[in-house]
Design a protein that fits this description.
alpha+beta; Helix Hairpins; HSP40/DNAj peptide-binding domain; 3 domains; four-stranded mixed β-sheet; three-stranded mixed β-sheet; about 30% helix
Length: about 300
Amino acid sequence: MSSKDPYEILGVSRTASPDEIKRAYRRLAKEHHPDRNPGDPAAERRFKEVQAAYEVLGDPQRRAEYDRFGAGGPRPDVHAWGPAAGGGPGGVRFDFGSLGDLTEIFEQFFSRAGAPRTRRSVRRVAPAGADVEGEIELGFDEALRGAVREIVLGGGGRTERIQVRVPAGVTDGERIRVRGRGQEGPGGRGDLLIRCRVAPHPFLRREGADLVLDLPLTVREAVLGTRVEIPTPRGPALLTVPPGTSSGTKLRLRGHGAPDRETGRTGDLYAVVRIVVPREVSAAARRLLEQFDAAAPLAPRSAAGWPK
């Protein structure tokens, strides 16, 4: 690069927000990281330039000082991290290239003409490496009870295998953060972010910590009551359907839901009654239904307050 202004190194404007600067740094650091460019000295130097530029612009106080002292004169030179040379206001020339001690560089930069030459302490906060993201697939039951997955990380000619524990009750799309397993950086490694993809269950569905299933019943079962075996995370369970159960009724099995990591409780399972009627009936069945209707008269719309 012909110009070594830290803003130009990161490809951002001088009015860029801290988030824009951070995003630009992460993108460039990932692009030029030595692990992705083994044996490429140009990429290594570019990576160091990006790190150096973020050391300045990623810290609000350093950025303010840079903006202040860089105004009204030549832009600071960034060709070599080394002793400041002549040039610019007060004979100060800010140098970014050979990547020496940042504390010494900033002391030189802050000691321009007219400024006190007392030694200043500069707090260095080295940025961590970029995060690594990936996905894992889980069965419905695995997501409820928790699981262990082996994750293989590769880069820079090396392979790393880690065991990741998936907590019980994880939901579809939820991300698990494994700290210190991302890319290398001056301030240590970034994190590993794992997005969980949970396969659907043929009968059950999640509603928070509760599980819900549709329970098909015949007219006879709904009217007279019955006992039905239903699937649960703990295995099949017998559910009692009381006589006179209407369609849409929710029957609850306590403690048969999903674990809630925030509250520590286990949700419930709700069976929603769906009464199934035959599409076609014989003449004999029709007569029986009419007899039943006469023997057990019911006016559901009037009971609901509908106008006559």
